[in-house]
Fold this sequence. Notes:
Blueprint: H1 19-33, E1 42-49, E2 55-57, H2 61-68, E3 75-82, E4 90-95, H3 99-115, H4 117-138
Antiparallel strand pairs: 1-2, 1-3, 3-4
Amino acid sequence: MDRTFLQVRFIVYSDSGAIVPVALMTAMFALTATAIEVKGVVTAATVLTNPDGKLTIDPSKEMEQKARDRIPGYAYVTSMKVMKDDHVRWYDMEGLSESAHLRDAFKKAAEAASLQYSQVAKMVQQLTERGKNVEGMLG
């Protein structure tokens, strides 16, 4: 079986926070909508931890900036999953936080990505069916 590699670039016009998960899932939706077969369903989430250990799913840009500015106690984790399994396929961390808080944020990000699976898989299925309908009209 031949493989094709695509490079996807994004131009961000507006960023209210958690842009990486949005970009990852948007790429998958765009490929699916154009009838390009994807290996699996991509889900992703960003979780921020503050100095008290409070976790925020999909933090605002301002909250993420505290981690980027290395304000002690603030950090965020973005995790991505492909398919419905327990394996995190990619992750990114930024900031300065206690290891226990960071570990909790990582677990919460992986959990949040997993919880999106059924909804995202349904959307991918709908896009795939629409693509087949369009192919039938064109061909």
